[in-house]
Amino acid sequence: MAKKAAAKGKSPKKAAKSPKKTGVRKTKKAKDPNAPKRALSAYMFFAKDTRKDILKQHPSWGVTDIGKELGARWGKMSSAQKAPFDKQAAADKARYERDMASYRKKK
To answer: Is the whole-model pTM more than 0.85?
Structure first.
């Protein structure tokens, strides 16, 4: 068999290998549609607010270009400039925790 593989230009090791077995896929746990939505991060509040401005300035840009620009702008911001978005994120986190507490009581 090794001679046949060598004659065809293949290495003997590759010709003798058995087919790979694929692992068993675990099924994803179904999300409850009644569960509350997760809290947004400060960056996501910033992105929601700033995306409109970027689209006005660059209407031909795609999703990746806009995402890169958002990331660059967020990285250049000082902590004082990020403070309003941090405040929104904290309020949204409190809302999420409140909603989750009532959701767990109902379950």
So the answer is: no
Domain boundaries defined on the chain: 37-107
Q: Give the pLDDT means over successive 10-residue stretches in the chain (107 positions).
A: 56 60 78 93 98 96 97 98 98 97 92
- Write out the CATH class of domain 37-107: mainly alpha
| Closest listed residue to residue 63, CA positions, set 53, 73, 51, 75 | 51
Return the DSSP state at 29.
P
In the three-class reduction of DSSP (H, G, I as helix; E, B as strand; rest coil), residue 57 is classed as helix
Amino acid at 28: K
The identity of residue 104, as a single letter, is: R
Q: 44, 69, 45, 43: which is closest to 56 by C-alpha?
A: 69
